[in-house]
Amino acid sequence: MSDQNFDVIVIGGGPAGYHAAIRAAQLGLKTACIDAWTGADGKAALGGTCLNVGCIPSKALLDSSKQFWNLTQHFDVHGITTKDAAIDVKTMVGRKDKIVKQFTGGVAMLFKQNKIASFLGKGKLLKDRQVEITAPDGGKQVISGTNIIIATGSTPIELPFAKFDGKAIVDNAGALAFDAVPKRLGVIGAGVIGLELGSVWKRLGADVTVIEALPDFLAVADADVARTAAREFAKQGLKIELGAKLSKAEVKGNEVHLSYAGKDGEKQLVVDKLLVAVGRRAYTDGLLGDGTGVSLDERGRVVVDEHCWTGVDGVWAVGDCVRGPMLAHKGFEEGIAVAELIAGKAGHVNLDTIPWVIYTEPEIAWVGKTEAQCKADNIPYKTGSFPFAAVGRAVAMNEPAGFVKVIAHAETDRILGCHIVGANASELIAECVVAMEFKGSAEDLARIVHAHPTLSEAVHEAAMSVDKRAIHKAN
What we know:
- Helix 1 (15-26) runs parallel beside helix 8 (328-342) and helix 3 (55-73) runs parallel beside helix 6.
- The protein has 3 domains: 5-156 and 281-351, FAD/NAD(P)-binding domain, CATH 3.50.50; 169-278, FAD/NAD(P)-binding domain (3-Layer(bba) Sandwich); 362-465, Enolase-like, domain 1 (2-Layer Sandwich), CATH 3.30.390.30.
- The strands form 5 sheets. Strands 1, 2, 3, 4, 5, 6 and 17 form a 7-stranded mixed beta sheet that branches.
- Strand 21 and strand 22 form a beta hairpin.
- By secondary structure, it is of the alpha/beta class.
- Helices cover 31% and strands 25% of the residues.
- It is an enzyme of class 1 (oxidoreductase).
- The active site is at 452 (proton acceptor).
């Protein structure tokens, strides 16, 4: 096989792509990965949106802003007093940038260790499993592979009347790179990105207004969880307007003037910065050449079956550019699964047990069905819940907000869903995912010994509560 022919070519070096490439190489397949992302230095920056302007940098800023919020709002209960606390935004953003560089560099090192050929540029699938690579300078070359894995990811949706300018009107990348705390920040969209980045700048002193078109807050989450989260966000001063549809965003000088239809009629709002976070779309622009046989659906996603196969011999697609939730960890597992299928091994991803997490304060996490979904599907169910306010560790941490809720089948007791709002929900949900993957029942979860004192006791007692036998609350 020549240097330009590979067993596997991965188009895209984001979460799904680099996992696919590394696993394929581990399995002894000659592997190449094409990615167009570059850092501030103009060099390749593997890791896609997740590592460069998504999961990792947003968590870095969330942690920094949480430290500042606790310092100014909560440390007094511990007997810790401060005076004239301040935040240096440039230092905070600089820390974030160092973390990003560390992890993108880490992926490059893993590619080198696994002997993966890395190409900088944009990949375009041609017929007969050939891929054209367009380098940043416009130069082109063609490589071929026995198998192609499409992992081109997603990109922010841009509103026609609020186009990104990178300064006043920004996407998630822009909101991660402000050089100062905006006095007034507008956020369009009360989804994961809007709530997380809105929280970052609110904690640092911005007056934040979130405008959400849907009438219900976090409709994708369990209603009880959404209700509790909304109450906690209101306490923090995060203003969320529901049933509000933006119609105009005009930059005037250093301000952005917004017009939107709210529940009480037309409204205006003036902000210093506007974050548009109304969702993401599959990034498949210019991906397919003529005669590839690969299809896109009405949303621009690559059409695949349950095994991420496109229906074209040797061509697969994974991650944000295919059906299913746009979550990095979903992409991780799809990339690995496809690499293993190519190598003749078993590979599968259960889309029903993928956890969701929103890294606000308190955190929100869930897996499986909500009560509303059980009702819609006519599934008989029972529930149990337990508040963090009754968990010794949570109270000792001064984080008593929220609860754990377990939904089980009314007849078989099999766990159908778990929903958490509260401290460390992102970590606690993993236990619930494992239980569901092993077809566990609420009783199984209830009979597992949990360490005391820990936050995980809330999961334990919620499972016990399903059968009205929780110890530390009235049943």
